[in-house]
């Protein structure tokens, strides 16, 4: 009897993820719930490229030494939240020149009018009226290049970035229409809970790591005492009932959203658990939950940051792997748009 040779059918190629975070300071609870936590979770189902977006950080004035320090620390923090640099690619944006190379070509295929509609541009130029630079305006083009240069299928981000994703899709679709199929149209992945964590000091604004009011955000590196204090001071209202109503009770609803994002509960379940209890008890419970969830990340962070050589090694390997993938796309795009290539 002859033995039959069974050739295993190849595993279907996994879809690809790309996402980035700016090294403009230590990440907040908003960054964690809106993006970083999902970055870690999605590693089981996708091939992931995660990037520290240092070039994007230059759109606001940064102290050079602080930017350098923040970049390495952010990479360490990404490792601490569970990014696996063996299975996936972790790198720094400026280490892969293909991003800026592609960004120029995409800029020449993006209209002034569509960039003028970006709400982040309007918000950031209002915040820094003395520095409304061209980079702030073309920011979404570089972000589109970050995504398209890897032909990413999925981009996990918080809600504030969905408009930038839309423009990336528009640019990709238009380019494909003019030059033939080139780019994958990326989809956004915005979490159900925690997509838009609001400021603890002003719940009409999103929590942001560059907010000058340090009580408006919880940093991933804040210790338990600080976390308890910040939640205690969080702006709520005077009606004293733990009930979700984002329009009438934005502060309480935001705290409930944070709590639910960690416990996995629905808003109704949170309401039921705190029925008849005051804001003091509720805020303490939110703070405890957050502090307990962050404690293991903080311990890992301290351990990893102590080994600068390890972090830099990860980033060096990551940049090489990313550059190989991205370089291919840039060569293809340069050829398609008619830039002369010598043999
Ligand atoms: P900056 O304050 O410098 O503008 P940021 O805190 O908004 O920074 P980014 O680096 O721009 O942070 O964003 C990293 C990721 O975190 C993005 O996916 C973004 O959508 C997400 N994110 C930022 N803020 C929040 C928030 N308040 N709630 C949920 N997700 C958020
Ligand atoms: N603009 C993003 C950071 C960012 C990004 C990206 C996110 C830069 N490049 C590519 C997703 C994909 C922000 O969070 N402000």
């Amino acid at each position: 009897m002859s033995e039959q040779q069974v050739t295993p059918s190849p595993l279907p190629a996994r879809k690809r993820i790309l996402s980035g975070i700016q090294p403009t300071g230590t990440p907040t609870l908003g960054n964690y719930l809106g993006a970083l936590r999902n970055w870690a979770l999605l590693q089981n189902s996708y091939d992931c490229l995660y990037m520290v977006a240092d070039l994007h950080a230059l759109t606001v004035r940064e102290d050079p030494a602080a930017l350098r320090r923040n970049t390495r620390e952010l990479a360490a923090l990404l490792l601490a939240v569970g990014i696996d640099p063996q299975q996936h690619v972790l790198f720094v944006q400026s280490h892969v020149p293909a991003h800026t190379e592609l960004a120029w070509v995409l800029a020449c295929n993006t209209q002034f009018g569509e960039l003028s509609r970006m709400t982040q541009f309007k918000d950031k130029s209002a915040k820094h009226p003395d520095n409304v630079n061209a980079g702030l305006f073309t920011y979404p083009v570089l972000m589109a290049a970050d995504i398209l240069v890897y032909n990413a299928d999925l981009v996990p981000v918080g809600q504030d970035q969905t408009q930038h994703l839309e423009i990336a899709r528009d640019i990709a679709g238009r380019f494909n229409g003019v030059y033939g199929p080139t780019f994958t149209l990326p989809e956004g992945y915005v979490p159900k809970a925690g997509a838009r964590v609001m400021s603890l000091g002003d719940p009409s604004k999103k929590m942001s790591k560059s907010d000058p009011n340090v009580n408006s955000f919880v940093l991933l590196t804040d210790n338990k005492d600080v976390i308890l204090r910040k939640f205690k001071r969080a702006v709520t209202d005077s009606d004293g009932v733990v009930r979700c109503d984002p329009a009438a009770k934005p502060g309480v609803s935001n705290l409930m959203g944070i709590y639910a994002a960690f416990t996995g509960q629905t808003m109704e379940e949170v309401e039921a658990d705190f029925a008849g209890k005051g804001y003091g008890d509720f805020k303490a419970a939110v703070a405890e939950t957050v502090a307990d969830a962050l404690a293991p990340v903080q311990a890992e962070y301290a351990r990893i940051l102590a080994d600068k050589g390890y972090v830099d090694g990860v980033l060096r390997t990551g940049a090489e792997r990313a550059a190989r993938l991205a370089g291919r796309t840039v060569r293809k795009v340069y050829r398609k748009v008619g830039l002369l290539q010598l043999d």
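The chain has 13 helices and five strands. The mean pLDDT is 95.
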